[in-house]
Amino acid sequence: MDPAKLAKLQAQAAANRIGGKGTMRRKIVRKSKPSTAQDDKKLQGALKKLNVQPIPGVEEVNMFREDGNVLHFTAPKVHAAVTANTFAVYGTGHVKELTELVPGILNQLGPDSLASLRKLAESYQAIQQNQQRPPNAAADEDDDDVPDLVENFDAVEDKAADKSNLEELN
Q1: Is Ribonucleoprotein there in the keyword field (predicted)?
Q2: Quick check: is 130 in a domain?
Q3: Which residue among 47, 101, 121, 158 is buried most deeply as judged by most CB within 10 Å?
């Protein structure tokens, strides 16, 4: 067969045919379902083995970290085995700073967290003082050796004018 005629037929076939015999296979991309349901079932099975019971009515859980941040769960699921001193908290947790949660969590703070809260309050006050001080305040503090003005310049000016007038008259 003629190579030019064969190339022409292949070009026509490629332009007209989208699929069929001789075309390249394409993989089908399937979206996977979220695996939270599977994870939840596995978690429930593990919790049943530990003999934990659900605790209803928990609105939020805050876990205080060593770096001063708080791991905050809103509407978590809480299970507990009090006899084994085992608690399971699961849900979506967010790491937040202590300042974001301060008014609502004051009754939850322990001695370690109170110390970090004190440090936070001191640093906040220092920041506030620096912001209230005008930018040229440092220059004013350096000029302590310059004495304050006591005299009234207008009165001195008037005296000098009176003296010059008296000299002109004499």
Answers
A1: no
A2: yes
A3: 47
Asked if residue 127 belongs to a domain, the reply is yes
Q: Rounded to whole angstroms, how far apart are CA atoms 55 and 117? A: 30
**CA 103 to each of CA 2, 134, 154: distance values in angstroms, whole numbers, following the listed order:** 86, 31, 57
Order across the sheet with 53-55: list the strands: 53-55, 77-81, 86-90
- Between 170 and 52, the more confident residue is 52
Higher pLDDT, 121 or 76: 76
- Predicted local confidence at residue 163, as pLDDT: 64
Per the structure, how many domains does the chain have?
1
Bigger pLDDT: 159 vs 31: 31
Distance CA 73, CA 63 (A): 9
Q: Is 107 among the domain residues?
A: yes
Structure tokens at 78: 């809480």
Cα-flanking dihedrals φ and ψ of residue 159, to 5°? Answer: -65, -40
Give the phi and the psi of residue 68 in degrees, each rounded to 5. Answer: 95, -5
SS3 65: coil
Q: Is residue 100 a part of any domain in this protein?
A: yes
Distance CA 71, CA 59 (A): 14
Q: Tell me the two tokens of residue 37.
A: 């349901």
What's 109's domain CATH number? 2.20.70.30
